[in-house]
Amino acid sequence: MGTIVLLTLTGLGLAALYFLVASGLSLVFGLADVLNFAHGLFLSVGAYATWWAAGHLPGAGPGGFGFVVAVAFGVAAGAVVGMLVELVMIRPLYSRTIEQVLVTVGLSLAGVALLQATWGADARPFPRPRWTTQVTSVLGAKVPNSGLLLVVAAVVVLAALLGFLRYTRYGLVIRAGVENREMVTALGIDVRKAFTLVFAIGGAAAALAGALGGVYFGSVSPGQGGSLLIFAFIVVVIGGMGSVVGSAYAAVAVGLLQQFVNYYGTSGAGDICVVALLAIVLLLRPQGIAGKAATA
Amino acid sequence: MTEPVLTVADLSVRIAGLHILQGVSFEVAPTGVTVLLGRNGVGKTTTLRAVVGLTPRNGEVRGTVRMGGEDLLAQPTHRLVRGGLGYVPEDRCVFAGLTVAENLRLAERRGTTPAYDRVYELFPELDRRGRQRAGSLSGGQQQMLAIGRVLLGDNRLLLVDEPTKGLAPKVVTEVAEVLERVAATVPVLLVEQNLAVVRRLARAAVVLAAGRVAWSGDAGELLRSTALTRSLLGVGVASGEVAA
Question: What ipTM does this complex have?
Answer without folding.
Answer: 0.90
